[in-house]
Design goal:
mainly alpha, elongated
């Protein structure tokens, strides 16, 4: 005995719309993967002469030089806070 399907096939226009949306989504995803983020701008790298101008730190010097120590604020552990 023949029983009609519980879920009839969608009309041709709806199937074409679904296919079109799938293709458009795939294109948008591919373009977003390949495109660079808009917020970044890659400029020219700095010349070596500019980078060489920064003085290296001497023994005991901690500020105003390249390779110095950064000021760090130590935190108190949660168990010792009380």
């Amino acid at each position: 005995m023949y029983t009609p399907p519980k879920f009839p096939r969608p009309p041709l226009r709806r199937r074409l719309l679904i296919a079109l949306l799938a293709v458009a989504t795939a294109i948008v995803v591919a373009v977003m993967i390949l495109k660079q983020p808009a917020g970044t701008h890659r400029g020219r790298p700095l010349p070596a002469a500019v980078l060489a101008d920064a003085p290296r730190c001497t023994e005991g010097q901690t500020e105003g030089c390249v390779g110095g120590m950064a000021a760090v604020i130590p935190t108190v552990p949660a168990s010792a806070a009380r």
